[in-house]
Amino acid sequence: GICNQYWGEAFRYVPRTLDSGAANPEYDLAYTMWFFEKENPNLEVSRLRIAANLTNHGLNNVEECHLDYLHHDTVKSGQGLTECHPYEDAACCKPETVLNVDRL
Questions:
Q1: 26: closest CA among 60, 62, 52, 5?
Q2: How far apart are CA 101 and CA 84, in angstroms?
Q3: Of 33, 54, 60, 95, whose Cβ has the fewest other Cβ atoms within 10 Å?
Q4: DSSP code for 23
Q5: Nearest partner of 98 among 87, 83, 78, judged by Cα
Q6: How far is it, in rounded angstroms, from Cα 97 to Cα 71?
Q7: Which pTM value belongs to this model?
Q8: What is the pLDDT of residues 32-71, one digit of tens each?
């Protein structure tokens, strides 16, 4: 998928249900890459993962970006993001790195 194209094996797809039709217990701890709600649902996922001790390298602060390149050190809002508009209220990416679909 597109996530693997951009980030290699850093992410994996987690379906809402298992092949058996049962709810997938990992789903509530999985990040979403796109959303339509006003508030980013990944903030709650991060809080759940922190509470369950499922973070790597002591990454336990949802206000820091934890990326070493092409991103801010802390989340920013009001940057006028167009391509990644769901993240407009809390984004780590810099506007110049997400100008359009060809420049992600």
A1: 52
A2: 9
A3: 54
A4: B
A5: 83
A6: 8
A7: 0.66
A8: 888 888 788 888 888 888 888 887 666 667 777 777 778 8
Cβ(58)–Cβ(43) under 8 Å? no
Q: Are 94 and 71 in contact (CB under 8 A)?
A: yes
Q: Phi and psi of 85, rounded to 5°?
A: -60, -25
The full DSSP string for 78-102 is -S--STTGGGTTSEEE-GGG-SSTT
- CA dist 91 and 56 (Å) reads 20
Q: Is the pLDDT of residue 93 over 70?
A: yes
Tokens of 69: 């390149």
The tokens describing 97, both together, are: 């790195």
Contact 91, 75 (CB under 8 A): yes
